[in-house]
Fold this sequence. Notes:
Number of domains: 2
Amino acid sequence: xxxxxxxxxxxxxxxxxxxxxxxxxxxxxxxxxxxxxxxxxxxxxxxxxxxxxxxxxxxxxxxxxxxxxxxxxxxxxxxxxxxxxxxxxxxxxxxxxxxxxxxxxxxxxxxxxxxxxxxxxxxxxxxxxxxxxxxxxxxxxxxxxxxxxxxxxxxxxxxxxxxxxxxxxxxxxxxxxxxxxxxxxxxxxxxxxxxxxxxxxxxxxxxxxxxxxxxxxxxxxxxxxxxxxx
Length: 230
C-alpha cells in the first residue's frame, strides 16, 4: 500500500514554542533515526487527526522544505479530555534494518459458534511485530470462520512470517457461550419466604402460654417451685 504523505513545517523547540504551536492549531512533532539527527517540525492538527484515527498505511512520508523521510508514527500524546493530539514522534525507516511497530488485525469470517448463538469477543485488535521496512503490512488477516463455541485463537496459533513481539499465550479472539439469565417464576419468592417464617396458625387460635414441662418466665417448670418435684 502506498505510504501517506504528511506536509510538515519547521518549528522552534521549547515549552513556550510548543504552546504557541498548539494555539495555532498545529501539533509539535519530531522525527529521529539511528543515522538521522532529530528534526523538529509541526503539522496541522486536522492532518494529524486523520493520521492517528483514520490511517490506512503504517508508513508515512514526512515532507518538509524539499526533504522527504520515510517514517512510522512511533508514539503520540493526546489531551486527556479532548483527545486532541499534543505531540508526536516519527521514526525514520532505514533499508535493511528491522523496525518494531503495531499493525491492525483484520478478523475475517463469521465464527460458526456465533451463528449458533455464541458471542465473539475480540481481545486484541493490533499486533506488535518486528519487520524490515519493505515488508511492513498495512494489516494482518486472521481467519475466524471455523471457531466454535469455546474456541480461541492465540498468538502461537498465527500462521504468519512476521516476528510477533507478544506473549505466545496471549488470546486474540474467543467465542463464548451465550449468557443465560435465571428467571424466577411468579410466586416462587413468596413461597420461599413463607417456608422460612414457618406455618401460620389457623384463624382464631392463639399460641399457648407454655407447653407442659417448659420453663415459665420465672425459670421453673409450670406448677412447681424451683428444685421441687412435680
